[in-house]
Amino acid sequence: MKKFLPAFVCFCLALILVPISIGSTTSKINTYPNLPAPIAQERILITSAGQAVEGAIMQSIAENLNLEADYRPRALDTDLYEYKSVVIVVGYSKNGLAQTVRNFQEELSRSKHLVQEAEANGISVIVVDFSGSLRNDSTTWKLLEEVIPHCTYYIGFSHTKKMDKLHAIVKEHHIPITLIDQIMDIEVPFNSAYR
Amino acid sequence: MSLNDNQISTKTLSGTILLIIGILFPNIVEDWTTYIIENIEASILLKDGGKLVITSIVYMTKYCFIFFFIFFGAILVTDGMLVKKDHPYRLYFYAVLVLVTIAIYNYLHLENFSYIGHLLTLAILLCLQNYIPKQKYYYVIYSIILLFVLMAMNWVQLIPALSVLGLGTDDMAVSLKITDHYLSNNYLLNTLASILFVVFLVIPITLTFLVHLLNKQIMAMEKIQESESALKAARIALVESKVYEEVNSLVHDLKTPLSTIEGLSSLIKMRLQHKAETSIDNYLDRMGGSIQKMNDMISEILYEDIKQPISVKELLEYVTSHLILAEQNIEIDISIEDNIPNIYVNKIRFSRAVSNILENAIASLAGKAGKITVDVTRIEESIIFKFLDNGPGIEASHLQDIWEDGFSTRNSTGIGLSFVKTVVENHQGTIQVDSSPGSYTQVYITLPLYEKGEKVDEYNYLSRG
């Protein structure tokens, strides 16, 4: 049996790490199933904060809803002049960012300037987080912390590890929030923001 | 540096190179990354599940390469550093080396790979390693098993249902799983990745099991062969010992008629003392010499393990006194260094060996006049016998064969030099032959110096008449 000890040790270590990965949350948040009245107008700029592929999903959903939207993952604050609302899909992807010429700090700065400019010009900002517990790294949270305070509406997943933190941010900035279980569930609340 | 040390340093070096390649592989295949990202986006926009499957295969291939280099490099470094394949800490060292390399990989590439997947991969590999025979093709078998285990574990990273356990947290896997969530509500990857995980896990387990069984069978067959060989050797030894006993008994019995011949020969000589029969007297002397030689040979067979210290001069006198030079014009020049210590030999066997060399030299002269020089010197802790004759010499092509049993250029039995070599080696000595065809032949015998205190046989059996 001694010869199986190293394998057993590795297996036990993996088991120990599982509860850490699962995490837990106790916070209860009051959410909207969908907004009672529209808060934004077309034409929509869909962009990404973190360059994850989820931006493309948002573009596909906008198409499904027949919303007039452009998907420009690397859009700058200077590109806002032709749009009446901005949808920022948050999610840090190291490989996605590697396809651009920017580093993370520059991406963070781009996202920050974009939402600040939109806020200054009265353009509605909808923050969408499709990654939920899958991208719960510190970099994604840095992006969320940067854009959520300037947004008009937040749509995210109900299964996320740092729900307390999210709750605190949206409560502090009085931002309406809708939490979904499946990606396709976003269609109703997202549509309600426009119609 | 010995051959073994070279193999060790080669293993460590190649292992380290593989580890470095593994760590830097994402930089080498940046195009693959671009392909994966572009295809994920295309599969979303086109709502194409097939494209997502192809992209998943590319993802699996890319990370199979990366982790193959890391895991295989680590085993080479481990074996290079710990040398013994059954070292008690070998597997621990291997596991730590893999995890440290993956930590470096994560630090450099920020891909957020979870350690759970790697720990499970290690657990499976370490378990299977116990059954991989550590023989000739160990690394080939290990690499095949490793490849399949990595394929299985890379598909696990893509099972969305296991994300909750912390599996598949790396950027690419997350992108693929989110896309699958959108396209098929995770139905596609949950099914496909689970099936492929099971298939790719069953293959290495079955392969390891088969290799283990095959190795067991081979080992059992080898054991049977060894037992058969041992049994055969024992049978031969038994037969040989019986033959040896019979020969020994026969040789011992020869002593009695020989003593009779010797006694009668002496009696004839006494009876002829007063007659002027010089030729018969001469024949009787030669007969007596031959009887003495036969007696010595019998003693040699009966007491072949007995060694004694003897002076070189005494030994050479004994040898030359038995040489028959009959009518040949051969000069034997013996030169012995002053104060040369005694040698520790079986007098009869060693004398026969020396005698064989001299007889060969004499025979090579083929009745012509010639000179044989015997030179004995001490060099450091050895005594060197040098026999030089000016005979026709030995062809260079024959020099390697002269030690073989049955080799002869004179239609003799061909066991002379083979016997000489055996005798010299039994005395912990060495023998060399150097010859120039048409010019000379030189034989060197080197014997270790006799040290006082070595076992000495009190009784010189050879002096028995």
UniProtKB/TrEMBL annotation, chain A:
Species source reads Ornithinibacillus bavariensis
Q: Where does the source fall among the domains of life?
A: Bacteria
Query: Signal among the record's keywords?
Result: yes
- Note the InterPro entries from the entry: DUF6305
Q: What is this protein called?
A: DUF6305 domain-containing protein
Q: Enumerate the UniProt keywords alphabetically.
A: Signal
Residue ranges constituting the DUF6305 domain according to the UniProt record:
41-194
> Does the record bear Signal in its keywords?
yes
TrEMBL record, chain B:
**Catalytic activity, as annotated:** ATP + protein L-histidine = ADP + protein N-phospho-L-histidine
Record localization: Cell membrane
GO molecular function terms attached to this record = ATP binding; phosphorelay sensor kinase activity
Q: Name one GO cellular component term.
A: plasma membrane
Q: Which InterPro entries match?
A: 2C_sensor_his_kinase, HATPase_C_sf, HATPase_dom, His_kinase_dom, HisK_dim/P_dom, HisK_dim/P_sf, Sig_transdc_His_kin-like_C
Q: Does the keyword Isomerase apply?
A: no
Ranges of residues in domain Histidine kinase:
249-451
Transmembrane ranges, per UniProt, are 12-29, 57-77, 89-107, 113-132, 139-167, 187-214
The record gives the membrane topology as: Multi-pass membrane protein
Which EC number(s) are documented for this chain?
2.7.13.3
The UniProt keywords, alphabetically, are: ATP-binding, Cell membrane, Kinase, Membrane, Nucleotide-binding, Phosphoprotein, Transferase, Transmembrane, Transmembrane helix, Two-component regulatory system
Main localization is membrane
Q: Cite the Pfam families for this sequence.
A: HATPase_c, HisKA
Return the PROSITE patterns for the record: HIS_KIN
- Class of this enzyme: transferase
Task: List the protein's name.
Answer: histidine kinase
Naturally occurring in which organism (per UniProt): Ornithinibacillus bavariensis
Lineage, opening ranks: Bacteria, Bacillati, Bacillota, Bacilli, Bacillales
